[in-house]
């Protein structure tokens, strides 16, 4: 049968663009099929903050951060907690290879394409409280100048150049429904043409079928993303080790992140592993200006807010803002409620609150030095202030008793006792005002301020919430927020899909979130943050280079 291209790539997100770029730079032809319209080129990566995990970078060294491949690999393996002999075989291999990439060629590879990095480095996922537990031992979260749209652009521009040169054809509104195989070899896709859509990026589009298609190639690369846009699918795969399934969540990715290709790949004979590993956030707030259904935004908090559960109990150590995402999620689910509270004041809001996402950080996304200066001026960043004014999850009052009353009013439940909340806040404030104390969160705040990036732009000067002169008191209701799929199609280090019997699936490759960012779960049970975009780049690059090398 005639081939429509050397390779078919299913999904025009970041991993698909990277694989396509690597194939075309080697002179291979690509047919790129995507179920959404052209405005969605780049997929979920477009919406990201653009953080990238780098190890022993010039940015770290300039800030006095001493990092190494050995330390990063130890942190990765401690966090991943790989414990499945068969299902974790390839993820372990990918973990080592990815950390080598992050400590080696990753930065120069991206810079060679035009990507630039901010001089400050963030310290995400500070961990579970001991040297050998989950978490980053040092700051490794590098901010891409231009956020998610920029990392999409550096690959999309080259894919468009290849399209103009005739090496790439893109078929939008083409939804793959079946992988085509002969004698155990993948050679094409069959699917449905969806009604043309003019919806803007991220908006849920029509699923009306207006036609059919069938295309053939020497190989197929699946880069279709995870399951985070389908809450029912998330619940169906909910990890037993996290406890009960949440009844209510916000959705952190567009509706088209639907996980369809996982089942389609499995029906064709692919191995899918670690379905119960996923990464969802605990600091979600309802988007007051939503793009997709149940659209939630994640707060990227500094360490100073007091974190209370739904009943007013303070979350125990080490479940502080920004420290141990999955441990905190497990604890919250154990309370029997699906929401928690941040208590803070205007001073903390202005210094410590950031919002995840390219659209919530216009200074970084627009690459505007003038806008960036607003982060060191008095006042909250514009998007944060807009959420404080318009967001349904924010309660702002001048008095703590009134604040607690507003919190109870917001939820419709009288779970919070004003006297008990005051006692907890006063106890915390007393620790703030002592040079020494036993409050581990207060110790963490002081430790964070020893890092120059945190002290300059991320962590407020320690002070009591009930001290005067710090602006109104603020409570933020935090919801659980769906985000990343950590398991998926099992792949070897060439991104070739494996079969359940351990053999390679000839002609079939996978990259990005649909492959658990490599191997079917390179993160294990925990991510170190800044690792999702990089996982798409590394696995897409591996697929493209392997096929460019091996195709006839």
UniProtKB/TrEMBL annotation:
Keywords: Flavoprotein, Oxidoreductase. It comes from the Bacteria. Transmembrane segments: none annotated. InterPro entries: FAD-dep_OxRdtase_2_FAD-bd, FAD/NAD-bd_sf, KsdD_DH. GO terms for molecular function: oxidoreductase activity, acting on the CH-CH group of donors. It holds the Pfam family FAD_binding_2. Residues 6-533 form the FAD-dependent oxidoreductase 2 FAD-binding domain. NCBIfam families: PRK12834.1. This is FAD-dependent oxidoreductase 2 FAD-binding domain-containing protein. The lineage of its organism: Bacteria, Bacillati, Actinomycetota, Actinomycetes, Actinopolysporales.
């Amino acid at each position: 049968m005639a081939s429509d291209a050397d390779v078919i790539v299913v999904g025009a997100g970041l991993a698909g663009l990277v694989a396509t770029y690597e194939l075309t730079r080697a002179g291979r032809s690509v047919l790129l099929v995507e179920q959404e319209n052209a405005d969605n080129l780049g997929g979920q990566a477009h919406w990201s903050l653009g953080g990238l995990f780098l190890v022993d970078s010039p940015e770290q060294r300039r800030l006095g951060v001493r990092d190494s491949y050995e330390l990063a690999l130890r942190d990765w393996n401690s966090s991943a907690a790989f414990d499945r002999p068969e299902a974790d075989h390839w993820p372990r291999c990918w973990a080592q290879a990815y950390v080598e990439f992050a400590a080696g060629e990753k930065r120069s590879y991206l810079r060679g394409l035009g990507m630039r990095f901010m001089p400050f480095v963030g310290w995400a996922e500070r961990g579970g409280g001991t040297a050998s537990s989950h978490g980053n031992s040092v700051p490794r979260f590098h901010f891409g100048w231009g956020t998610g749209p920029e990392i999409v652009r550096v690959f999309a521009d080259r894919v468009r150049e290849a399209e103009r040169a005739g090496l790439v054809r893109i078929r939008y509104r083409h939804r793959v429904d079946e992988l085509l195989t002969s004698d155990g070899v993948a050679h094409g896709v069959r699917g449905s043409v969806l009604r043309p859509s003019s919806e803007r990026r991220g908006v849920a589009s029509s699923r009306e079928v207006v036609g059919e298609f069938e295309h053939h190639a020497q190989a197929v690369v699946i880069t279709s993303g995870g399951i985070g846009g389908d809450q029912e699918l998330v619940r169906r795969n909910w990890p037993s080790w996290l406890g009960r399934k949440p009844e209510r969540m916000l959705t952190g990715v567009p509706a088209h992140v639907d996980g369809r290709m996982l089942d389609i790949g499995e029906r064709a004979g692919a191995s899918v592993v670690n379905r119960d590993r996923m990464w969802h956030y605990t600091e979600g707030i309802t988007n007051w200006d939503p793009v997709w259904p149940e659209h939630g935004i994640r707060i990227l908090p500094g360490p100073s807010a007091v974190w209370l559960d739904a009943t007013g109990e303070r979350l125990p150590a080490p479940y502080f803002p920004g420290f141990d995402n999955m441990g905190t999620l497990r604890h919250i689910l154990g309370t029997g409620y699906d929401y928690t509270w941040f208590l803070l004041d205007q001073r903390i809001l202005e210094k410590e609150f950031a919002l995840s996402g390219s659209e919530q950080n216009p200074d970084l996304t627009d690459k505007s030095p003038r806008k960036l200066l607003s982060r060191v001026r008095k006042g909250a960043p514009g998007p944060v202030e807009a959420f404080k004014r318009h967001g349904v999850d924010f309660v702002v009052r001048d008095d703590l008793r009134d604040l607690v009353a507003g919190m109870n009013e917001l939820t419709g439940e009288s779970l919070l006792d004003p006297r008990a909340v005051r006692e907890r806040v006063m106890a915390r404030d007393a620790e703030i005002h002592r040079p020494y104390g036993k409050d581990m969160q207060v110790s963490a705040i002081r430790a964070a301020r020893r890092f120059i990036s945190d002290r300059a732009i991320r962590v407020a000067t320690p002070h009591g919430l009930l001290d005067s002169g710090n602006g109104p008191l603020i409570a933020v209701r935090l919801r659980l927020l769906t985000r990343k799929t950590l398991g998926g199609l099992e792949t070897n280090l060439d991104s070739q899909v494996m079969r359940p019997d351990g053999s390679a699936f000839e002609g079939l490759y996978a990259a990005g979130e649909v492959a658990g960012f490599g191997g079917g779960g390179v993160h294990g049970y925990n991510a170190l943050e800044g690792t999702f975009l990089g996982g798409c780049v590394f696995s897409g690059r591996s697929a493209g280079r392997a096929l460019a090398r091996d195709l006839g």
